[in-house]
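Bumping my old thread because nobody answered last time. Still need a sequence for this structure:
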């Protein structure tokens, strides 16, 4: 029969084990709660971004610029060099041909692009180049020239993202100077007045012409269209089955050698 001393020691050890088990449960619970909170925040952010292209009031109809904080957080800290988003040394390169009025381009920007940026561009594995095809109508041209001006300040992607988050109806005349000025003013680190002035320059017009020539050379005749490939190699056309992340990620993984 164990002595009283041994019983007390065993009782003490059991008490310690009970405390440790309780702490472990609390840690697991806390971590699970944190994971749920983070996942929920991501779902809400993506849902808000996706919904902004529908009936939700946006800067396109005179409301405040929608999604400014979301867009800033998405792109913050990622290098921008003119048309390029991401590291110039990325292993995989993507070129997107898009029109800022194109609703399907907006769908890509709101549905698939955030995950591509978060998972592949921010890590330095993939870079994306934006080629602005302003063919739908006058609003496309006005917005495209302002995008070219934002490019001069290395803020093209911020402007483009906010354009898609605040996209109006095609050829409705929504891309006024007032609308474009509000979107520019919502871009962190950008001189909106300087950009609006630069949008009227021959350099801005030349940027649109260069994009059109690049599309013709690559056989691009619709938006959004994509060229993909490993950096330094010939890029090829890639037309996804749809505009969800799941339609793009397998292609990126394959180009990265299955290590993503």
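Sorry it took so long. Here it is:
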């Amino acid at each position: 029969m164990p002595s009283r001393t041994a019983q007390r020691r065993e009782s003490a050890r059991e008490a310690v084990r009970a405390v440790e088990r309780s702490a472990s449960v609390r840690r697991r619970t806390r971590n699970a709660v944190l994971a749920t909170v983070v996942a929920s925040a991501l779902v809400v952010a993506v849902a808000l971004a996706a919904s902004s292209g529908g009936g939700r009031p946006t800067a396109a109809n005179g409301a405040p610029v929608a999604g400014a904080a979301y867009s800033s957080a998405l792109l913050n800290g990622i290098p921008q060099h003119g048309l390029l988003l991401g590291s110039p040394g990325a292993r995989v390169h993507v070129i997107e041909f898009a029109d800022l009025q194109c609703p399907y381009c907006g769908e890509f920007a709101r549905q698939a692009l955030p995950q591509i940026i978060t998972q592949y561009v921010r890590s330095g594995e993939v870079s994306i180049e934006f080629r602005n095809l302003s063919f739908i109508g006058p609003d496309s041209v006005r917005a495209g020239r302002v995008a070219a001006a934002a490019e001069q300040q290395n803020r093209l992607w911020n402007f483009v993202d906010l354009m898609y988050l605040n996209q109006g109806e095609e050829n409705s005349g929504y891309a006024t100077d007032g609308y474009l000025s509000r979107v520019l003013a919502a871009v962190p680190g950008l001189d909106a007045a300087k950009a609006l002035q630069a949008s009227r320059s021959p350099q801005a017009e030349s940027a649109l012409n260069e994009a059109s020539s690049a599309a013709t050379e690559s056989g691009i005749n619709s938006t959004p269209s994509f060229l993909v490939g490993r950096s330094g190699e010939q890029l090829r056309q890639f037309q996804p089955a749809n505009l969800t992340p799941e339609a793009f990620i397998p292609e990126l993984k394959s180009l990265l050698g299955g290590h993503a």
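Residues 1-13, 15-54 have pLDDT under 50 and may be disordered. Let me know if any region looks off to you.
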